[in-house]
UniProtKB/TrEMBL annotation, chain B:
Renumbered residue ranges of the record's region Disordered: 253-285
UniProt protein name: ABC transporter ATP-binding protein
Ranges of Basic and acidic residues composition bias in the record: 256-267
Organism listed in the record: Phytoactinopolyspora alkaliphila
UniProt keyword list: ATP-binding, Nucleotide-binding, Transport
Keyword field contains Nucleotide-binding: yes
UniProt key word Transport: yes
Domain ABC transporter: 4-237
InterPro entries assigned to the protein according to its UniProt record, in alphabetical order: AAA+_ATPase (IPR003593), ABC_transporter-like_ATP-bd (IPR003439), ABC_transporter-like_CS (IPR017871), ABC_transporter_ATP-bind (IPR050166), P-loop_NTPase (IPR027417)
Pfam families registered for this protein in UniProt: ABC_tran
TrEMBL record, chain C:
Localization per record: Cell membrane
Topology term for the membrane: Multi-pass membrane protein
Keywords: Cell membrane, Membrane, Transmembrane, Transmembrane helix, Transport
Protein name (record): ABC transporter permease
Domain ABC transmembrane type-1: 72-252
Record carries keyword Plastid: no
Listed GO biological process terms: transmembrane transport
Organism from which the protein derives: Phytoactinopolyspora alkaliphila
Length: 280, 285, 271
């Protein structure tokens, strides 16, 4: 029997198929590009384009990395940094999300705080570092304060924008279907603004993360930022490289394990991909 | 003398993910004469857009030949202007900037291109909107701008892919009348894709009807209507109704044929039962 | 991101403006009042928290001695140089990456990695390579912006509808002119986002880099003041930093956005 007109299936060449499959795998797509970059890095180091005091190859960095792990310095510093970031983020979310919705929902809260929000967001978080150190010394409290500060404002502003973007007709539909004010909030506005929360968290973390590194570099006594600047003071470029790579991996992990899943489960699933595409 | 000559056009797509080959166009041949308005009509998914994209130079054909003005088509060119269903106006250019775009790309100096652009804006009834941006126009006005933008280039052939599908019914009628008037005035060569039978008959000199996939030309129908045309008189014209009925039958036949195939196809999948199919699929992935 | 408060829409144009301005100022007045009262009541030491008048005094001092202008000038000069460098490099690079799907897919993870590191994390390396001083600071500003700008530009180019590219090509646009005629304006909504994000990073990078590697500038001054527990000077400079950023946003980014993206009716992705 002839099946003319139907989609013709032809088996693709095996080689091309595997290649394509490889190209489709998330892991390969994400980490594949790093392979040639590391190779190029290694080649540049081997060819000694730059003096070794300024530029070292991946082999040296890996050796130093192993050394630092063995000595226990890297794990200790890493856990210090992660603790600081984590504490700041948790408090930042605990404050920022309710405050954001309050400002978004209440006309009065909005009128009284919106200009202040804009202004405080404009004072770069790092500029708070000196006075915070006057208040708390260099302690977990000081770093937490700065990270909370960096996260709260972008988060609040983002939530206000998100609530505003919830289509009016959606709210009206819910009301005409019998939802009260409270149900409209929990069932329409809250989920509708979730993508904005995701965007806000991403923006806030991008800044909070930088604030942490800055704090550790400027006044730190431990942490990855401190390790890098300590190495720099000693003129050891290897330690700086190790620090940067650890920071990069840390962000990648944060992105892959926390941010991306959250965004996938809200924004992408509901087809509201727009905001997530913006890099931060 | 034909401006557009399509011979045995065949087009296959290879799906980038599954590696399947999809036949979009089976075997299509027809030609469009200079100053002629030809529509192509067919069931959804039969490859009308694909034919147009090949003529435009956006897609490469698998086999066959497409010639415009005696030269084979290889890449997009201002010789073959396209009016898009989505308008595809440049939001960052003013109305005038959009119309003058093609002339500017050809290096026509500003002093010469502006009068030309204005003349075409007038032709489509957009005079006075030169300084507006596209988003400030209504859907109907945007598409008239799309037409003016192409005509200003004086192409060998104007290609239109369901240009009026995204405007409301009222506006569509108006735009169709405007288009016949413009056609009457300028006599461009037009290749028009649609799946609206009335529209095809109202606008065209000839209508090419495609069968469902793998598409071939089922029939080429000549429209026995005088120009100039307008909806009021055309709707009362028995020739119009005859042609529409004939085309509708043709399309309905094609659709019945397609359903039959679908049934046969599903029958096949059922009867050949699951295990072998599964094994095949497993081997592939 | 509108700075104007969502005040009522009724009334004449002038009175509406006036009431908007009042609503805008009110929160600041309230904040200042709270500040005055709290410092009065708690009698907190000036080395911990200054009275508002102390800050005003410090500001006046910085103004009349000309120090304010020296430092703000030094900082602005670095920002301007860094930002110009980032725009001249980041946007073309992003467009280049965005114009091919495969190149974009290859570079996307690398750029994400780099965006995460951009700016402050480069300070140790920058000071090692370029020494302490002007060059390291400008490098940090450039670096902080470059990746965010390039990445967002790339995304913007990828988001240009295919039909628009086809329309341009079918009207005979030469390859080289696609860059200025279609790719650049088409990607502009995302470029503006990239500028905003990048400037945010750049500005923070500047403050941090000045603390470490400069002998003038707002970051340097604020940190110096901390060593002497001059909280009045610290807060004066913090306000200056906030105002400078607001001016950048209001006077440069917002008008750019209004004239282009908004004027053209292209939906900007706000954040
Ligand atoms: N880029 C592509 N890759 C794979 N298959 C494609 C591609 N473009 C079109 N096709 C397939 O080719 C066939 C014809 O598509 P085409 O868009 O030309 O149909 P059409 O006649 O314009 O349909 P409609 O009336 O719905 O617009 C369809 O089955 C479609 O799935
Ligand atoms: Mg189509």
């Amino acid at each position: 029997m002839t099946v003319s007109g139907a989609t013709q299936r032809t088996r693709p060449a095996m080689g091309g198929f595997w290649w394509r499959r490889l190209g489709r795998s998330r892991v390969v797509r994400t980490f594949g590009p790093f392979v040639p970059v590391v190779l190029a890095w290694w080649a540049v180091a081997e060819l000694e384009f730059f003096p070794a005091a300024f530029f070292v190859g991946p082999d040296v960095v890996v050796a130093e990395f192993a050394e630092l792990i063995k000595k226990g310095i890297l794990p200790a510093y890493l856990s210090d940094s992660v603790t600081r970031l984590w504490t700041g983020v948790v408090f930042g979310l605990l404050i920022g999300i309710p405050a954001g919705f309050l400002v978004a929902m209440s006309r009065w809260a909005r009128r009284l705080t919106w200009p202040l929000l804009m202004f405080f967001q404009a004072i770069a978080d790092i500029a708070w570092l000196p006075i915070v150190i006057v208040w708390f010394g260099f302690s977990l409290t000081a770093v937490t304060f700065v990270i909370v500060y960096t996260i709260v404002f972008p988060l609040m502003i983002s939530i206000v924008a998100g609530v505003e973007q919830v289509p009016r007709d959606m709210v009206r539909a819910a009301r005409s279907l019998g939802a009260g004010r409270f149900r409209v909030f929990t069932d329409v506005i809250l989920p509708g603004a979730l993508p904005a929360v995701a965007t806000g968290i991403r923006t806030g973390l991008g800044y909070g993360w930088r604030a942490l590194i800055a704090a550790e570099i400027i006044v730190g006594t431990s942490g990855i930022g401190f390790m890098m600047f300590d190495a720099r003071r000693a003129g050891e470029v290897t330690g700086v490289f190790v620090g940067m790579i650890v920071l990069g991996i840390l962000w990648f992990a944060l992105d892959a394990l926390v941010l991306a899943p959250f965004e996938r489960s809200t924004i992408e699933r509901w087809g509201m991909i727009q905001t997530a595409e913006v890099a931060r | 003398m034909s401006t557009l000559e399509i011979k045995n056009l065949h087009k296959e797509y290879v799906d980038a993910y599954t590696g399947e080959t999809v036949t979009a166009v089976g075997d299509v041949s027809f030609s469009v004469d200079r100053g002629e308005f030809v529509s192509i009509l067919g069931p959804s998914g039969c490859g009308k857009t694909t034919v147009l994209n090949v003529v435009a130079g956006f897609d490469k054909l698998t086999s066959g030949s497409v010639e415009v003005g005696g030269k084979p088509v290889t890449a997009p060119s201002p010789e073959r202007g396209v009016v898009f269903q989505s308008f595809a106006l440049f939001p960052w250019k003013t109305v005038l900037g959009n119309v003058a775009f093609g002339l500017r790309m050809r290096g026509v100096p500003r002093r010469e291109r502006e009068p030309v652009a204005r003349q075409y804006l007038e032709l489509v009834g957009l005079e006075g909107f030169e300084r507006k941006f596209p988003h400030e126009l209504s859907g109907g006005m945007q598409q008239r701008l799309g037409v003016a933008r192409v005509l200003a280039n004086e192409p060998e052939v104007m290609l239109m892919d369901e240009p009026f599908a995204s405007v409301d019914a009222q506006t569509r009628r108006k735009l169709q009348e405007d288009l016949t008037d413009i056609f009457q005035a300028k006599r461009p060569t037009v290749f028009f894709v649609t799946h609206d039978v009335d529209e095809a008959v109202f606008l065209s000199d000839r209508v090419v009807v495609l069968s469902s996939r793998p598409s071939t030309v089922a029939e080429i129908v000549t429209v026995p209507l005088e120009r100039p045309r307008n909806w009021r008189s055309v709707l009362e014209n028995p020739d119009f109704r005859h042609t529409v009925t004939h085309l509708t039958d043709l399309l309905a036949g094609g659709r019945a044929h397609g359903e039959e195939q679908a049934e046969r196809l599903s029958g096949r999948v059922d009867s050949s039962s699951e295990p072998p199919v599964r094994a095949d699929a497993g081997g592939e992935s | 991101m509108a700075l104007t408060s969502p005040a009522g829409r009724r009334g004449g144009k002038l009175s509406r403006r006036l009431s908007a301005a009042l609503w805008f100022l009110l929160p600041f007045v309230l904040l200042a009042a709270v500040w005055v009262v709290i410092v009065e009541v708690t009698e907190v030491e000036m080395r911990i928290f200054p009275q508002i008048t102390d800050v005003a005094g410090a500001f006046g001092e910085l103004w009349s001695s000309g120090e304010l202008f020296t430092h703000v000038g030094a900082s602005l000069r670095r920002v301007v140089l860094g930002v110009i460098a980032a725009i001249l490099t980041g946007i073309p690079f992003g467009i280049l990456l965005g114009s091919s799907r495969w190149v974009a897919a290859f570079f996307a993870p690398l750029l994400r990695f780099s965006v995460a590191l951009a700016g402050i994390a480069w300070i140790p390396l920058a000071t090692l390579w370029l020494g302490y001083g002007e060059r390291a600071v400008i490098f940090i500003v450039w670096n902080a912006m470059f990746f965010a700008l390039a990445y967002n530009t790339m995304l913007g180019v990828q988001r240009i509808p295919t039909q628009l590219l086809r329309a341009a090509r079918s009207m005979g646009t030469p390859r080289a002119r696609m860059f200025t005629e279609v790719l650049l304006p088409g990607a502009l909504p995302n470029i503006v986002t990239g500028l905003r994000v990048g400037l945010g990073y750049g500005w923070r990078g500047l403050v941090a880099a000045e603390i470490i590697a400069a002998s003038a500038g707002v970051g340097y001054s604020i940190f110096l003041a901390q060593k002497f527990f001059r909280t009045d000077v610290i807060i004066a400079f913090m306000i200056v930093i906030g105002v400078l950023w607001l001016i950048t946003d209001r006077a440069v980014l917002a008008p750019l956005e209004r004239r282009t993206v908004e004027r053209w009716g292209m939906k900007a992705v706000t954040a």
